[in-house]
Write a structure and sequence with these properties.
Length: about 500
């Protein structure tokens, strides 16, 4: 049985980060809404309560019956989690005089406390709260303080119950990993047996059992998630897996053939479908970004469905859904919202059962699994690319000629990033074809041609992003090369907007 830590989500923005940090300790964990604790699951060995946007005394605050878990598992409350446990046991939580936000140093520490083993006084922690614990309940003891926050950490005497008002999961908390390790390993007794290799071994065995001799069809996109899902399924059921890779005509230059070759080398049973004519004709004259997306989404389902129906006896649809897509997120009213699947609508339409072998993994774990499976590095470290592809990077209507211009410019930019060793330093990059023409001069001739925008961003999850501060010399080289070799482009700009308020894609 795979032992696990449960992270009860009270709605904090850093809940997922707690999960990732625990997994980095090779300890399996699951994030569940605060009101969905898996009481009958025997594999739970410890509980972490997350932060929350609410104050404990807020009427709408998310609350649990602490007694249902207290004494049964070691518990660590983080920020709101710590305040909540103090509050419901008779402590006082009040608005802080000044919001406690940002770096702070632990000035006094009880280093004999198992939660704080190996953490030195002076360690930096990250605070982010508007409330603070001003008095602890009877029998709760302070085990660490900062200058501003007397109750930086506490323990209930004689119990495996701790609270910290800072955020150990945030990378700025330099002692955060040590603290989480102390909790997960020393206190909860976690065996740290979660690794890419162990995941592959157990998942392949499970898939064999679950699927037996059934046939599975899976849509490949060229992206890391669907590719790793396919290789994993291939390892489990071999030729009973058929993959379909649809070219909607809006892929990058040579991408369809290059990626198809990669897949074949990996031994996948893959059907490549060139459906570009269908998509070009359906998209002709369409300028509205949402309409473009809808046409491509619907067209993709039609092509996929048609191909899948040519196969006999398929029972399952494989998908590369990953953990962040599956975590039930909390709305502010406390109801849970399921997030969307990659290829919405497909399973219903095709009447297939869903098989999602990566649904427990964070993105960095998907990459680790891909490496462990021997997949080539360029497939694993690929930048994200939107499903509708270059269609949302051509502003205005789409024609094969515009796609070709954009493919050439994009190829120069991406190849340049690789040549300059910058590709892995940015989260995502691409070129946007603008619906403007501008005057230029080439040789003795006046030109009136298109403008493109280069876009490169740094990010950790695409929720927020900053424009990448690429070297001027690099930008100059790319700009020259595009203008000199891509016919129809005479001006290159660089997008320096961050997200928010802009988005990564222009449409
Ligand atoms: P935005 O533009 O919203 O993009 O900042 C965030 C991330 O999502 C990708 N993206 C998409 N991916 N289908 C996808 O599969 C889409 O329609 C789509 N739109 C945006 C975008 O490339 C970025 O990584």
């Amino acid at each position: 049985m795979q032992e696990k830590i449960i992270i009860l989500d009270f709605g904090s923005q850093t809940t997922q980060l707690i999960g990732r940090r625990v997994r980095e300790l090779n300890m399996y964990c699951e994030i569940v809404p605060y009101n969905k604790f898996p009481h009958s699951d025997p594999s739970v060995i410890g509980v972490i309560l997350s932060g929350s946007p609410f104050s404990v005394y807020d009427e709408k605050a998310f609350k649990i019956e602490l007694d249902t878990i207290r004494g049964k598992y070691p518990i660590l409350g983080i920020c709101y989690g710590a305040q909540f446990m103090a509050y419901v046991n008779g402590g006082t939580v009040e608005p802080a005089n000044s919001r406690e936000y940002g770096r702070a140093l632990l000035t006094t520490i009880d280093t004999t406390n198992p939660l704080l083993k190996g953490i030195e006084p002076g360690s930096q922690v990250w605070m982010s709260h508007g409330d603070t614990i001003t008095s602890l309940p009877e029998g709760f003891n302070i085990i660490a303080s900062t200058e501003q926050v007397p109750v930086a950490a506490y323990q209930a005497q004689g119990e495996k119950l701790w609270g910290v008002q800072f955020h150990p999961e945030v990378y700025h908390s330099t002692c955060g990993t040590q603290l989480l390790r102390n909790f997960v390993v020393d206190i909860c007794g976690g065996k740290q047996d979660w690794s890419a290799a162990s995941f592959i071994e157990s998942t392949v065995a499970q898939l064999k059992q679950q699927l037996g001799d059934d046939k599975v069809v899976l849509g490949l996109s060229g992206g890391v998630d669907s590719s790793v899902a396919a290789v994993l399924l291939n390892k489990a059921i071999g030729k009973n897996l058929t993959c379909i890779f649809v070219d909607h005509g809006m892929l990058r230059k040579n991408e369809f053939t290059d990626v198809l070759r990669d897949y074949e080398v990996l031994g996948l049973n893959v059907i490549g479908v060139d459906a570009s004519r269908k998509f070009f004709s359906e998209l002709a004259g369409v300028t509205d970004p949402e309409k473009k997306r809808k046409i491509i989404g619907k067209g993709f389902i039609e092509v996929f469905d048609e191909e899948a129906h040519k196969l006999s006896d398929v029972k399952w649809l494989g998908q590369g859904t990953i953990y962040p897509d599956c975590i039930e997120s909390l709305s502010i009213t406390g109801t849970t919202i399921k997030s969307h699947h990659n290829v919405g609508g497909l399973p219903e339409k095709m009447n297939l059962k869903l098989c999602e072998p990566l649904r427990l993994l964070f993105k960095d774990e998907v990459r680790a699994v891909g490496r462990e499976l021997g997949m080539p590095e360029h497939l694993i470290t690929r930048h994200p690319f939107p499903g509708p592809g270059l269609a949302v990077r051509i502003l205005g209507d789409i024609t094969p000629e515009k796609v070709q211009i954009l493919q050439e410019a994009d190829h120069i930019f991406i190849q340049g990033l690789r040549d300059w060793g910058l590709y892995d330093k940015v989260w995502q990059a691409g070129v946007i074809l603008l619906p403007v023409q501008s005057v230029g001069v080439m040789g003795d001739e006046r030109t009136y041609e298109r403008a493109v925008a280069l876009r490169a961003v740094t990010s950790t999850d695409a929720m927020t992003a900053d424009w990448a501060h690429l070297p001027y010399d690099f930008l100059a080289e790319v700009s020259n090369k595009i203008i000199n070799t891509v016919r129809g482009v005479n001006r290159v700009t660089y997008d320096i907007s961050s997200k928010p308020p802009a988005t990564i894609e222009w449409e």
